[in-house]
Amino acid sequence: MEARIIRRSLVTIAVGLAMGSAGVAHATNGYFAHGYGTKAKGMGGVGMAISQDAYAPGINPAGIAGMETRIDGSLAYFRPERSYTAGQPQGQGPFPLAPGEVESGSKNFFIPSLGYVQQIDDTRSWGIALLGNGGLNTDYPNVNNGPGAPTGTFGGGPAGVNLEQLAIIPTYAQKFADGRVSVGVSPIVSYSRFKATGLQGFGDFSSDPGNLSDNGTDSAWGYGGQIGFQAEVADGVVVGANYRSKIRNGDFDDYSGLFAEGGSFDIPSTWGAGISFDVTPSITIAADYQRINYSDVDAVSNPFSNLFNSPEAIGMMGGDPATGDPEARLGGQNGPGFGWRDINVFKIGAQFEAGNDWTWRVGYNRGQNPVRSDDVLINILAPAVMEDHFTAGFTKGFGDNHELNFAAMYAPRKSVSGTNPLDGQDIKIEMRQYELEIGYAYRF
User: Fold this and answer.
1) What residue numbers bound the domain in which 22 lies?
2) pLDDT for 274-298, tens place per residue?
3) Looking at the predicted structure, is the pLDDT value of residue 6 above 60?
4) Which has more confidence, 24 or 407?
5) Residue 5, burial from CB neighbour count under 10 angstroms (0-12, 13-18, 19+)
6) Which of these, 381, 387, 292, 386, lies nearest to 338 by C-alpha position?
7) What is the DSSP string of 183-196?
């Protein structure tokens, strides 16, 4: 009875904490985290075929089948360093940026994660994971664009965006075929928040200028689902795969003049597969492949060049505005987005059980950069250009019930250069990232 009360209390506290701290700025593979769970993060984010904690549904829901009853909590310190550099204005259009380098102000973020698994029997478990699914954040100062010009990167004072996403993932998983095959399913509930500031310079190109910028924080709930499996194909060799549907969010109505389709901002579908194998009884190596389909979401994938089909842009270039497409304005059905492409992510990790309840981990994560050079102007707001991620971590067990987990990640500086399509000047966007995460687990 006492253990049951403790479990219920911990789950209630976990849900409350996660809902109260949904704010994240987690951009690594585009705007998805490089991994979910402290142990997975220490191994480059792998988890399709190896599952070790209650965060497993963040990668593959099959991983909790028959898992022991446990609760995991962690806190990550995440530091992204973002900036853009503009060259000399060329005078070829109405939107020059002030020359020089400008850094985003906010750099330090603390991101909680929580997970709980309840074992039903040796083959079945259910659980819930609450994870930061992704996020973007920039905060540029009120730069001076020259005499008589509006201040701020985009002509509206201090500029930036803040996208926060929380995924709530209840999961059921079961083993079959004498325990060699596991299948898991999860409905997914998402909670997203968004705010944009300083974008008034785009007002002439918006279908709804009153809902373009500086409307505070808007929020939306969404829903989706996932299914995954793991199978032991030989002694010590496990394969796994997972498919997660597009998560259909409600619209950000307060930003219907910014995002394509009147403020629509769904979360793209993903799928992946992986393998893990025991090299020795104490050494395990795992590798994953993941596909992130940013093309599912027009607000993310539509190229910024769509804007030049609008009546205002055609008129600016000396053409007949009547030939333009009104739906090509910001917020229109064919409106511009960030121009992100679908990306492939490759992950590899290893862990070594060293004895005395110590386990050590290393990993590498290589994700494609989703940002094309043609779209650097709008991606000043979202310079999620990272590719390489180097990771390490450890677990120290204490008795039969307690674990201390740690993971570290470093993503070296990456930049993308292109041309400002509204002036002709050169622009470079870049980012570098650090993350440290500490977690605690209690096994019942």
Assistant:
1) 2-443
2) 999 999 999 999 999 999 999 999 9
3) no
4) 407
5) exposed
6) 381
7) EEEEEEEEEEEEEE
Band of the pLDDT at 41, cuts 50, 70, 90? very high
> With contact defined as beta carbons under 8 Å apart, do 52 and 35 qualify?
no
- Report the 10 Å Cβ neighbour count for 31: 26
The CATH number that applies at residue 184 is: 2.40.160.60
In sequence order, what are the residues at sequence separation of 6 or more whose Cβ sits closer than 8 angstroms to the Cβ of residue 442?
A: 10, 70, 71, 401, 402, 403
3-state secondary structure of 105: coil
Measured between alpha carbons, how far is residue 197 from residues 52, 337, 438 in Å?
41, 17, 33
Question: How far is 322 from 327, CA to CA, in rounded Å?
Answer: 13
341: how many CB neighbours lie within 10 A of its CB? 18
Q: How many domains does the chain have?
A: 1
Nearest to 65 by CA among 230, 270, 275, 189: 230
Cβ contact 179:67 at 8 Å: no
In angstroms, the CA 384 to CA 136 distance is 8
Instruction: Report d(CA 62, CA 225) in Å as an integer.
Output: 13
Distance in angstroms (rounded) separating the CA atoms of residues 183 and 66? 11
Task: Please write the tens of the pLDDT for every residue from 368-410.
Answer: 999 999 999 999 999 999 999 999 999 999 999 999 999 999 9
Please, are residues 139 and 109 in contact by the beta-carbon 8 Å criterion? no
What 3-state DSSP class applies to 15? Answer: helix
The pLDDT of residue 317:
81
pTM of the predicted protein model: 0.92
In this structure, are residues 286 and 279 in contact, taking their beta carbons and an 8 Å threshold?
Answer: no
* Res. 364 pLDDT band, cuts 50 70 90: very high
Nearest one of 162, 169, 219 to 193, comparing CA atoms:
219
Is the CB of residue 362 less than 8 Å from the CB of residue 329?
no
Residue keyed to tokens 């689902």: 225
CA-to-CA distance for 18 and 131, rounded, in angstroms? 8
Measured in degrees and rounded to the nearest 5, phi and psi for residue 305 equal: -65, -15
CA 345 remoteness from chain centre? 13
Contact 404, 396 (CB under 8 A): yes
Between CA 166 and CA 187 the distance in angstroms is 14
